[in-house]
Amino acid sequence: MRKYLIAGNWKMKMTRDTSVALVNKLLDELEPSENVEVAVCPPAVYLHDVGAALRGSHIGLGGQNMHAAPEGAFTGEISSGMLKDIGCQYVILGHSERRQYFVETDADVNEKLKVALSVGLIPIVCVGETLEQRESGSTAEVIAEQIRGSLSGLDAADGAKIVVAYEPVWAIGTGKTATPEQAEEVHAQIRGLLRELFGAETAATIRIQYGGSVKPDNASELLGQPNIDGALVGGASLKADGFAAIIAAAK
């Protein structure tokens, strides 16, 4: 049985004080669960303080992005080793905002993914279509291209260590959410692609999160779908009560 992963992506929001206050409240409210993993991905400048507050707890820490190089003259960037050194277990790769605003390609994601795996980080690999692509009927084609490109060159052992997040771009931060049926349709397609790449046994173990305006009032129905194994939560992860309610829905 796949263990749910509920991860909060704080994006470029919060302050040091509000970040630490949020995780302290989550630690007060959340009990460890056998079937749900929880992680938060704060802005890089707050990883140290949030990590210190979480140290030894059941809530994991993740980065929102990383550079593929182990070190070098890349002003403003963060390496996989730096994330690992600060205490991260996870890293988000290929988020639609990275793809859209920073022109990251599947090849870029693939390069970062292999580096993340090499240092022991768990990559959360994001894929998703735009509204224009969905309305043109090309969702399946777009998802297949992103999955095959982003996961190129991995073997089954590598595949078993990743998480995939389906985030329809038209549902991120818009208040719009894919219906449970729409989300499950794409998740089932992704599961089939993972079977092609890694075999049925490995594909059955890989967690596929849904992301895109996940809230307490829609979490239960989304997480109840057969191939939805968690959520990558944006705005709703910035409030302890709302995030805890989504986690409770997974439990």
Structural descriptors:
eight-stranded parallel β-sheet
Strand order, biggest sheet?
A: 7-6-5-4-3-2-1-8
Report the span from N to C terminus: 13 Å
Q: What is the total tally of β strands?
A: 8
Uncertain regions spanning at least 5 consecutive residues:
none
Query: What would you call the shape?
Result: globular
- Fraction of residues in β-strands: 15-25%
Mean pLDDT: 96
CATH level 3 topology: TIM Barrel
Overall CATH class: Alpha Beta
- Biggest β-sheet description: 8 strands, parallel
SSE topology string:
EHEHEHEHHEHHHEHHEHEH
Q: What class do helices, strands and sheet pairing give?
A: alpha/beta
Number of separate helices: 12
Radius of gyration: 17 Å
> Helical percent range?
40-55%
CATH superfamily: Aldolase class I
Fold and architecture overview:
- This protein has one domain (about 5-250): Alpha-Beta Barrel (TIM Barrel).
- About 45% of the residues lie in helices and about 15% in strands.
- The chain has helices spanning about 15-30, 45-55, 80-85, 95-100, 105-120, 130-135, 140-150, 155-160, 180-200, 200-205, 215-225, 240-250; strands at about 5-10, 35-40, 60-65, 90-95, 120-125, 165, 205-210, 230-235.
- It contains twelve helices and eight strands.
- It has an eight-stranded parallel β-sheet, covered by helices on one side.
- With about 250 residues, the protein is α/β, with parallel strands linked by helices.
